[in-house]
Design brief:
Layout (H helix, E strand, L loop, with lengths): L5 H25 L9 E6 L2 E4 L1 E10 L4 E6 L7 E9 L8 H4 L2 E9 L6 E9 L2 E2 L3 E7 L3 E3 L11 E2 L5 E5 L6 E8 L4 E7 L9 E6 L5 E5 L9 E5 L4 E9 L9 E8 L3
Parallel strand pairs: 2-9, 10-12, 11-13
Antiparallel strand pairs: 1-3, 3-6, 4-7, 5-6, 7-8, 7-9, 12-19, 13-18, 14-17, 14-19, 15-16, 15-18
Length: 266
């Protein structure tokens, strides 16, 4: 076998080294720094704020750790929104971070008594840009009722008045929330869920029962979306119950809702 001379071996090694350096250089060119992305809001916890009160308000989304300001679109009546903290947020098991968020902003919102009720819109701003407009509901403190646990059975049903809006959540898989109200024969009532419109992960099912726990009406989807709505003329004077659950028996932090139970004027 003919042996290679030392000069030839050195030349081959030099060529190989140059090729390796060229590949490494290409790798560096491929790893370009990513452009910072603006804040993206997924869901607010809760979905509604009380007028005439100071509210603890958590906003979940993407790219929120460097948020510096929150701005509401309705500025006819001044309110105070103070950012308390920004942080990473745990993504619930089997959830998509792009839908439920992996970062959050904790805000204290003080809403004066003269602030108009209804849906408002807000944006979050950071050094990387401004988020798209997202809705949040403002309601009088006398109308907005918080869910009270335990309320997972007929015997534990939470009593509410007609005209109330309940702010609650399906907190775990298989959870059911039950409410009860009193109504008069011939009165038409509506029970409406607002959830996915505010970014909630809840796919609701609503059911109304009479005092003997017989089903009078039930609804899964309405108005072309997963939020539920029932309109019912009460057959007799007495107590009625409403049950609410997730259509897939899921639950968690982001399965929040607003339940409106109103008298329908005919």
């Amino acid at each position: 076998m003919r042996r290679l001379g030392v000069p030839l071996v050195a030349a081959i090694l030099a060529l190989c080294s140059g090729a390796l350096l060229e590949v490494k250089g290409d790798d560096k060119e491929d790893k370009k720094p990513q452009k910072p992305e603006p804040p993206q809001v997924c869901v607010t916890l809760p979905l509604a704020l009380r007028i005439g009160a100071t509210n603890q308000f958590t906003i979940r989304g993407l790219n929120l750790t460097n948020v510096t300001a929150l701005q509401f679109t309705n500025t006819s009546v001044a309110l105070t929104a103070e950012i308390k903290a920004t942080s990473k947020a745990e993504v619930p098991k089997e959830s998509d971070a792009k839908k439920v968020g992996d970062t959050q902003v904790e805000v204290v919102v003080t809403v004066p008594s003269g602030f108009p009720s209804g849906t408002n819109w807000f944006t979050l701003a950071s050094t990387s840009g401004v988020s798209e407009l997202k809705p949040v509901v403002f309601l009088p403190a006398t109308q907005l009722v918080s869910e009270k646990e335990p309320n997972g059975s007929y015997g534990q049903a939470q009593s509410i008045e007609l005209g109330a809006t309940v702010s609650g959540g399906i907190k775990e898989s298989g959870d059911v929330d039950v409410y009860q109200f009193s109504g008069s024969a011939g009165t038409t009532v509506s029970a409406t869920i607002r959830a996915t419109t505010g970014g909630s992960a809840l796919d609701s099912i609503l059911t109304i029962y009479d005092a003997a726990n017989r089903i009078l009406a039930s609804n899964d989807d309405s108005a072309g979306g997963p939020d539920s709505m029932i309109r019912l003329r009460l057959p007799k004077t007495g107590v009625y119950r409403i049950s609410l659950q997730d259509a897939h028996d899921r639950g968690g932090l982001t399965h929040v809702y607003l339940l409106d139970v109103q008298v329908v004027e005919e």
